[in-house]
Amino acid sequence: MTPSTLEQFGLNRPESGDDVAVPFALETFDSRGRVVRLGDALDTIISRHGYPEPVARLLGEAITLAALIGSSLKFEGRFILQSRTDGPVSLLVVDFDTPDGLRAYARYDADVIAEAVRNGKASPAELLGKGILALTVDQGVHMDRYQGIVALEGHEGLEEVAHTYFQQSEQIPTRVRLAVAEYSERGRPGSRWRAGGVLLQHLPETGISHMPDLPGDGDFENEATADPDFVEDDGWTEAKALLDTLTDAELADPDLSSERLLFRLYHEAGVRVFEPQPLVERCTCSAERVEQMIHDFSPEDRTDMVVDGEIEVVCEFCSTHYHFNPNQF
After folding, report:
1. Contact indicator for 183, 12 with CB cutoff of 8 Å
2. pLDDT tens-digit profile of 76-123?
3. 240 to each of 51, 144, 200, 251, 265, how far by Cα in Å?
4. Are strands 310-314 and 321-324 parallel, antiparallel or unpaired?
5. Which of 67, 114, 68, 113 is nearest to 90 (CA)?
6. Which residue in 129, 151, 157, 214 has its CB near the most CB atoms, within 10 A?
7. Domains in the chain, start-ordered, CATH in brackets?
8. pTM of the full predicted structure?
């Protein structure tokens, strides 16, 4: 597709690359959404922990999903995606610090993961197992905190969990696609992690347009019962069908920009893209925050923290080591 063709769709700027969220609208289908492409930001988060390949892929999907949702928030705060399960990956935590910061980590049983890989039972659903996925919007100390919880039954991946969440908590027809891959780049040693994701929602002029826009605008705890007489809009059916033609390879392709991907899917119906929003790997830990945390412990607890004459704290997100003299508290 030539630059002039891109201009036909209102793109009068350079195409976006990695580590961005690109909002878009499908006016013919009464739908809109976002595309997220993650490169260096994702690779930095995953590589610093040396996760096994299946864990890295699962965490990559969680980070991408959090970026798709979190980048839509229009206030200062945090979006937190967290799973607690009985599976080999017992905990996933992704923090999205508005407007652009991502950090994440996973806890897992290395021996069980290795056994699962040997037995061919290392799919995302099998790694998660049974438990819950909590999606939380924290708007700060002076605002309400919203949380939606989805039960994990041991047979859902994160795409399916996202669909359940939006159906129950937001009542907005939603389609999510996630893909994570390893790529080798010319001139750079080894392989690097990257990911792509699309979140598509149906928001017609009447009816459902009065529902909450995205997390942060509504009460997460109200679950809706599906209307047995509901008839799906033809435009939404077509928009979903076109999205379902998207392959994982296309979604994670470093040479296929978000704009070209959208035009490839929706050029016949018409797609409007908006300015990309940057995404960065950024941990919010600091020596001051860790020091305050230690100060809040009791003297007895601080004494138990002392090893070789000092208190050491390691950030689970970014692996930064902080060292303190116990006598300063």
Report:
1. no
2. 889 999 999 999 999 999 999 999 999 999 999 999 999 999 999 999
3. 33, 33, 8, 15, 10
4. antiparallel
5. 113
6. 214
7. 3-281 (3.55.30.10), 287-328 (3.90.1280.10)
8. 0.87
